[in-house]
User: Fold these one by one.
Assistant:
Number 1:
Amino acid sequence: MPELPEVETTRRGIEPHVVGRRIRQLLVHDRRLRWPVDPGIATAIAGRVIQRAGRRAKYLLLETDAGTLILHLGMSGSLRVLPASTPRIVHDHVDIELDSGQTLRFNDPRRFGSLFFTTGDPKSHPLLRHLAPEPLEDEFNADYLWKITRRRAVAIKQLIMNSRLVVGVGNIYASEALFRARIRPRRQARSLTRQECARLVRAIKATLTMAVKVGGTTLRDYVGADGNPGYFRQKLYVYERAGKPCRVCRQPIRQFTQGQRSTYWCANCQK
Ligand SMILES: [Zn+2]
């Protein structure tokens, strides 16, 4: 499933191809995404210029002079920039044809993706209005993590993966960030010290930033997300490394199941 770094990589990948471009036409080949695509979008968006390619959580925002397209890649969606004449393949559901002769093509085998259009402020759209802070923005800081952990007995790993508290910290990045912060995944959230909160915030930001950087530089022809962490995998400290030596202390990495997801950690490095 595309996580925040993959979506940000996609945003950076498509940005130079779409910003400043006029939309020639939007073609919906199959409306049956997670929610049916409104056929009226095509009329609303035709002839409009894309002014900005933004992102909020895992939503891509294509802002035009008439309104904003809100696109979610779902579980299996990807975007590719192709010459508009490229024959479609199976699961190519939407084309956003540009005046450059290229098309932004959305492919989604499992159809959990979605496409909406809003003429208002996209951040007030029902899908985006109640989203928690972005992990890479300043509002996600040690004070904030300190505050939200005080009364919560839940394990810290599950807390940082709770999208009502902070968006976009998926399973891989949660395990990695806790290793970097030297905090055990099962610790009760409220047991973290102020200093540990600060360390964990820094670790989350560093982990996600590196994932975006690596995704952006090694997946050159990939402007979409295939769900794989790509070359980031080679740099992982603990994720899917059960039994292998810790890169810091050489003790074997351990694994257990937490909230139905695999968690990886080093019993020696993490307290
Ligand atoms: Zn270790």
Number 2:
Amino acid sequence: MRGIYVHLPFCPYICPYCDFAKWRVDADAARTYLEALEVELEMTPSAQAQTLFLGGGTPNTYSTAQIAGLTKRLRAHFSLPDDGEATMEANPDRELCRGLELVRSAGINRLSFGVQSFERSELQTLGRRHSPEDVVAAVEAGRAAGFSNISLDLMFGIPGQSVASWRRSLDAAISLGVEHISAYGLTIEAGTPYARWFEREPSGFIDETTEAELYAVAIEVLGEAGFEQYEISNFARPGSRSVHNENYWANGEYVGLGVGAASYIGGRRSTHTRDLSEYVRAARERQPIPGESEELTGAARLGEATMLALRTREGVDVQAFRNKYGFDFLDYYARVIDELTSVGVLRVDPTHVRLTDRGRFVANDVARAFIA
Ligand code: SF4
């Protein structure tokens, strides 16, 4: 299984909490970048892949014709099967969601809208410019264009958010009849305007107890609505899990194209530079894209795979880990497993090791115990 990730880093505006590799859109820079991306694609070995993900940034700052052209070339280059999942992240702004038919006919078959909230005041706090009505219109536009697989990203822990407003956002998302919902906690990333705000006024932010309460509400509300929580932050209607993301959590291989994109091939993880001009220059000169790379072997590889697998509903498949990594998981981690099961955050059955319901709330701490 191999996935292809393509980073399209331009956005119509910059959100104050965002730490992704992104730039405010400028038509010339965006065109130049697309040309560089095409060169990188030509230089990339044309291995078979099963899924495609256009992420960002905001991919739909590009025209639908540009996205369609890129998608066709990517699909051909990586011999993507006709029914292979191909996702485009999109801003639900009404203006940016016109002409989605062209994108659909080029082979994108899943849309992931960055909604974050259905509350006007929360959208404003996040610096987002779309309205709740835009989201409804975007989902309708997606359906009209033939998309039968639509995901919405929602955020909890937004300053000023309450349990009641979070419930309203979850209910609004569910009522749109989408197949998939991702619910992420807000994280304060160093160097962002939000980090400076947090430093000035920590009391303006949601505390850990309330954040845990909001997460519990998401699990409850989405579960009752028939969504399966198949990963810490991801909920799907039966049959609508994200295949591309499941490959990440299975520690599968992926190829990343574009500025800041990461790849994982043959146990080697590499990340492209986050410097846009450096990326464009290297691609134009047909040089290898600068960046960092590390080989994950032995225990480091096992730790990484464990951290990812524990995020999922299925958890660690002990036999599969033995076959793939050559370690007896229960033996190798006996002490850690003992400690974590005794405090009730990990559960062991004869074939799998999983987080308990409580463990989902401290997933990052549990994962860290396996890579320490
Ligand atoms: S739209 Fe997304 S990628 Fe762009 S600045 Fe906002 S959060 Fe970041």
